[in-house]
Each structure stands twice: as C-alpha cells, then as structure tokens.
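Worked example 2:
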Amino acid sequence: MGPADDFDVAVIGGGIMGCATALNLARGGMRTVLLERRGLCMEASGVNAGTLTHRTGPVSMQPYYTRSIAMWKTAGQWLGDDVGFRERGGLTVAFNEKQADRATADFKLRKQQEVEVELIDGDRARSIEPNLSKHAVLASYFPRDAYANSSRTGYAFQKALRACGVSIRTNSEVQVLELGDSGFSIRTSTEPVRAKRILISSGAWVRKVMAMLGYQFADTVAVRVNMMSVTERMPRLFSSLITHANSGLTLKQPDNGTVLIGGGWQGRGDPYSGQADLVRENVTTNFRLSHSVFPGIEATRLVRTWLGFEVRLPGDEPIAGPLPGLPNAFVIGGFQSGWTGGPYIGRLMADAMLGREPELPLFDPAHALHRTPLTKPHMQDETV
C-alpha cells in the first residue's frame, strides 16, 4: 500500500446522498475523494423502485421532497442525464372504511404542508386508472409524483463526478478512520487517504463507521432488508404510481411494460456479514395483494426479486450535520424516502460544509449520538 493521497474532503459512502454531496463539494472548489465499499448507488440507492413522491416519509420532510423532486426533474441539466425521469402522478388507494379514514387523515397532514394533493372517490380514481379494482372506495391523488431509474443513477453520477475532478474509489472498504494533527487518516482495503474533512454517508453501515471515531447511537439502529420484485413485460395496465393505503404495497409500470412491486416487505439479512435472504411468503403475499389492486396483474409472472439494506435511526429521525465535538467531521443518513430527497439534502449538506447558509435547516446529529473514549485497538478492529 503506497503513500496516502491528500484531499480537502473524503466522502465515505457512494449512495445517492454521498454522491450528491460530493458533486456539490467538488463544484464548490473542494478536492474531493469518494470512498465506496462496492459501486456507486449499488446498495439502497440502486435497488429501490425509483419512486419520487410526497406520499411517504414524515410530513415535516415535505418541503425538502418538493425541492428534491424539482431537482430530479431537471437532472439532465445538473447531472447530465435525465436518469429516466417520468412524471406520472400517484394514487394512494383505500379499499374499506378504515383505510379510507387513514388515507383522509394523511391527506389532511400533507395538505397542511402545501403538498399538491387531492382526495377523490373510487369512481374518480378509476377514471384515472380504468383497470383499478372495483373495490377501491377512495384515493389521495398526487399529480406531481414521478419516478426515475435507480439502476441508471450510479453511472450518471460517476460521469458527473469524474467530470468535476472527484477521485472515485470503488470497491474500497474503510478499515481504519482516525483523527490526526492535520486532518483524518483513512485506511481502506485498497489504499490510504488523508483528508482535512470527512462526511460519513454510509447508509446501513453508519453505526460501524461512527464507532471508529468513538461515537455511539443513543438508541437502537435498525436495518431493514427491503425486497423488490419485477414481473414479465405485459401490455400497459396502469400509468400512475400506486400505493396501498394500508399495507405499504407500491406498484409502478415503467415504459418497458414490466411491473415493479415493492413496499417495504422484509427479507432477512445483516449488512455486516453480507448475508441476505428472501422471505418467500412475504414475496408471494405482496404479489397476491397486487392482484387485489389491479386484477389484470394475474396475467403475468414474477421473474426476479432482490433485496437492499436500509438504515432506520432512533425515533426514525434523520441526521445531517456536523458531528458534536469533532471539528470538520459530518454525517448524513437515516432519511425515510431518502431516494426522493437525496439530491436536495446532498446540496444542503454541501452548502453547510462549504460555509454557506443552507436554504432549509439540516438535522442536528447531536440528539442521536454520544461520544465515548476510544482506544486504538478498537478502531483497528472495525471493518465496513
């Protein structure tokens, strides 16, 4: 392993938020290195269905989502690739009175945040999507909901990052992270790096990276093992992005005619061991539920199911900002609908690190973290 390269900032984690922050830091004049244990946007940012929506995540995040979806819409300008952006509108559909009450309450909350949404009856929902089940009684309609192709995003960011001089180190696991007299020393599985500043954006691996600097989370850090499935291609069945009001089921049919089926149904696995397994009954139950929403789906078959790790921090509260008590160190993560908000949150994070005033407030990590004394052997034992 040769001598360490020196940078103004090292971004640890190449998901959507790490990539977006690194891009804005480089465009702001910082010499930037991006360290990623696999490839860019290959973990949670590359295995999701690409939904861009106001329908999920806390109501307080809606102003961030609005601005981020606008950025996705103009990705061809700031990223150099439209990454398959399509604005199709979205329906959250209720099939009984209890679900309708839940959808109505959620509609009122999001309306308070000036989200563009309309509450409609089942007949109106079927006028938008004629193949929708006759049992639908009510829906929230989000005309600005959209999606992008998550499998294209890593490649698009790679081109944009390289064009502005970011050093991209993929397949490069962080093994030791420590603070020295002139900045941070990082030992990776490929080569050492030195940087004046760091941003930890390591997704489901955030707990282990933070421990290298002596930080512990105040409460449990949960890791979800989300499953996504795709069907064979079939004639156009629906165009909108569909969410079931009760189960979390999500459905979308891209231009190629396949149907993407998601919604947080869980597999089994552990990001640190790399083990991930499907839960067959969850896959089949979710597929059957999709039949109840669009009976025509029964004419096709599932062809593939895959999994991705997603972190949930204590209280489901995200963090984005400086590490308490450690100058020039920052962390970002734990966002619900992080795919939707990624470009905008990354821009805000970069503004803060560049000494600019972010347009909207960030999310102080101090509430979730405490720091403990650190010994060198403990640091060297950590591998992510």
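The longest helix spans residues 97-112. The two ends are 18 Å apart (CA to CA).
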